[in-house]
Design a protein that fits this description.
The protein is of the alpha/beta class. The chain folds into two domains: 2-108 and 322-337, no CATH class; 156-273, no CATH class. The chain has helices spanning 19-23, 39-52, 117-153, 158-173, 214-230, 275-278, 282-319, 323-337; strands at 2-4, 8-11, 14-17, 27-32, 57-62, 65-74, 79-83, 99-103, 181-183, 186-189, 192-195, 205-210, 236-238, 249-251, 255-258, 265-268.
């Protein structure tokens, strides 16, 4: 069985990942190499064989290319494979004991890179500039959401807010624990903003904290999560790329609490808001929502520019690889990993 979990995100606070916590005590295989040399393909090869042999497998999609792997965990073998190149550079702390490095750069014919240095550096610079602009657009979207949140929070009836919080906490604390993990339920790419939290429901009952201001629902979930932590109840925490310091969803063993729309049981969080007072600001709220959508659209366009630069780098490095020699080395490594005689 194979599952996925998005552990990194391009957020309003820049690039954030939860890789170190995810590796934990498992034996780590750190894969090094430039763009387009086969790091993700290597993980997929291991994943295919692991599934064929009946192991439970979980992979981590790349936040910049949802179709590529950044990590692969094989339960039962207690190993984790990691793309350990920028922007998430990792190495073993005790080589051979807690991890090792598989360097795909060994199979790079440097003579084929002669004259390409300037092109690569130019692509890297364009990629860096695009990401700076992408992060700026996400920050603009966040500021617009903050404006909306300010208007709503100024008109909250605190007694009703705490009643809703209490009811949800009482329900959540009676459920059983699950893996204590942090992840992202959303990402940005060339097509704009995507929310994939439905992929994490995994048979749990969905409880949707319905509100026209997602920050109110996230505030409730943040308080619930803190209380569960204090009581030692393990749970999954999902942080939106638009508010990475808050919590957009929580999963216990049997329940999935979400601040954005999913089909399931509804809790009317808007009931805590004095809508008569808020009605004065409806026009302002509509304008701020339009700003959010516009900024997310622009962020997607900057992401597309970064991918164009990235693809140019992949073509150069891929063309300089000795893939035949790499395949032979990979087979030897995988055979040893699975103890294939």
């Amino acid at each position: 069985m194979t599952k996925s979990l998005l552990l990194a995100g391009n957020t309003t606070d820049g690039f954030i990942n939860y890789f170190k916590e995810y590796v934990g005590s498992s034996y780590a295989i750190f894969i090094k190499g430039g763009s387009g040399v086969g790091k993700s393909t290597f993980m997929r090869d291991v994943e295919t064989l692991a599934v064929e042999r009946g192991y439970e497998v979980e992979y981590v999609p790349c936040s910049s290319d949802i179709n590529s792997h950044d990590m692969l965990k094989v339960y039962g073998m207690n190993i984790t494979m990691i793309d350990a190149t920028s922007p998430h550079v990792f190495e073993p702390s005790c080589y051979g004991i807690d991890g090792e490095i598989f360097d795909l750069g060994r199979f790079l014919d440097r003579s084929k890179l002669i004259g390409a240095g300037g092109i690569i550096k130019d692509c890297l610079e364009r990629k860096s500039q695009s990401y700076k602009c992408l992060y700026n657009e996400l920050k603009i979207a966040r500021l617009a959401l903050d404006n909306i949140a300010s208007l709503y929070f100024d008109n909250i009836e605190s007694d009703k807010f705490h009643d809703v919080l209490y009811d949800i906490l009482q329900e959540a604390r009676t459920d059983e624990s699950c893996h204590n993990r942090d992840a992202f339920p959303d990402y940005i790419d060339a097509d704009g903003y995507h929310d994939i939290r439905d992929e994490y429901v995994d048979g749990r009952e969905v409880v949707y904290l319905q509100s026209r201001c997602v920050d109110i629902s996230e505030k409730i979930l943040e308080s619930v999560s803190k209380a569960l932590d204090d009581e030692g109840i393990s749970h999954m925490r999902f942080h939106s790329i638009l508010n990475p310091t808050s919590i957009s969803a929580i999963a216990t063993k049997n329940k999935f609490y979400t601040a954005t729309a999913l089909s399931g049981r509804l809790i009317d969080v808007d009931a805590v808001v004095d809508n008569v007072k808020l009605s004065t600001f409806v026009t302002d709220i509509i304008k701020e929502r339009a700003c959010v959508n516009h900024s997310l659209c622009r962020a997607g366009k900057y992401f597309a520019r970064s991918r164009e630069a990235h693809d140019g780098i992949e073509i150069i490095y891929g063309g300089a690889m000795d893939f035949a020699a790499l395949e032979a080395a990979k087979k030897e490594f995988i055979d040893k990993l699975f103890d294939i005689k």
